[in-house]
Amino acid sequence: MPEPLLPVVRAKARFTSVILEHPLVIAGAAIDRVTMALVDVLVRDSAGNTTRGRGASMLSVPWAWPSSLSFEARDRRMRELVETSARLVVGSDAADPFAAWETLRRRAAVLPEAEGIPQVALLLCIAAADSSLHDGGAAAQGLSALDFASRQSPLLGSIADAEAFAAKHHRTRVPVQRVVGLSDGIGDEDALCRDIQEHGIRHLKIKLAGEAESDAARVTAIHDRFGSLGLTFALDANEGYRRPEEFHLLLDTLRSREELWRSIRYVEQPAPRTVHDIRPWHPDRIPADLLPPLVLDEGHVDVDQLRGAGERGWSGVAIKASKGQSFAILSFLHARAAGLFTVLQDLTTVDLALEHSAGLAAALPFTYRAFECNSLQYAPGANDRLRRRRPDMLRLQDGSVAVGPTPLRGLYV
């Protein structure tokens, strides 16, 4: 094995607990707290110079690991796996973080700490270490993380796509997609109304409960309240529709409202994450070309899934920075090569994790151009440090936030 060009000489994990100001209620769970995992690495070049790399991921326990185990038990297990992952990257080559991530993933999957942890939770646990290698490796070579990623890994192979990384795609402002949780109000006195009327929000992601009649009524009520403003809707079931027939009923009901139906841009993870072939969830009464894209999220745990995803009824994939820079880039390129719909989502990202997510949203040509940024709603206080450094990223104006220029070195401006 050749000597590393940019060996990682030190790595350390740390954590920040984030308490939401009010719970984000999704199908099957109420999320009232998340953990931000951060990994700092030091990489050394051939001249002995060292460069710091940083990575962050949100350990959204109820979303990633549904279980009867207590939140504390699952959170502790995931933190332990983050710490072990940080130790495992010492000695890795930050000159090729994709290869280092592939090795890390294989090693982490067989660790005692990983026993019983779902695959999507494992991705979150190794993500901070992975992203820190992209940041440190790129910064050590004086490159932005995307320039660095586009030119150095054999793992990109046939999906390498220089055009996808072109500077022409970069946007200094990015529209925000606002989440409407199951317990969020839609009246004049509620925050949703204020964000739409005062801050210009025009993109909503509406959480579904998995019950067709109540979900259709809620989506209809939101459209009746705000549809005249030209809003776009995404529907997120968070695995809530266990039976295809119930999902068919939802879509049939919504399709009966023509203007509402036209406003729906995609439907996210309608079926459980264990469902690989979504075709039974396609209603017979609606032609395939009239269905909104059905988008993988919780069920997206392997980039190879995207090969042939269309043949299994999936038409898109949600990309998350909190699954790590390697997985995000590889997923985006595989999806683009397969002609799949792409959208950037988050896990109530805050601080460094939010900066990473916003940077991807600004730089890559996602099909759906707005990005989810729900810490503005649920955990604004957790962004105080970022607000002092980059206040425009946390200030909604005309439904968007300022992301700024492309980073000159690494992942962050």
Explain how this protein is built.
The protein is an alpha/beta fold and 413 residues long. The protein has 2 domains: 8-157, Enolase-like, N-terminal domain (Enolase-like, domain 1, 2-Layer Sandwich), CATH 3.30.390; 161-402, Alpha-Beta Barrel (TIM Barrel). The chain has 13 helices and 12 strands. The strands form 2 sheets. Strands 4, 5, 6, 7, 8, 9, 10, 11 and 12 form a 9-stranded mixed sheet that branches. Strands 1-2-3 form a 3-stranded antiparallel sheet. Helix 2 packs parallel to helix 4, helix 3 (97-109) packs antiparallel against helix 4 and helix 7 runs parallel beside helix 8. The radius of gyration is 21 Å and the shape is globular. The mean pLDDT is 94.
Shape: globular
Briefly note the CATH topology name of the largest domain: TIM Barrel
Q: CATH homologous superfamily of the largest domain?
A: Enolase-like C-terminal domain
Q: What's the structural domain tally?
A: 2
CATH architecture label name of the largest domain? Alpha-Beta Barrel
Helix content: 25-40%
Brief rundown of the structure:
The protein is built from 13 helices and twelve strands. The chain has 413 residues and is α/β, with parallel strands linked by helices.
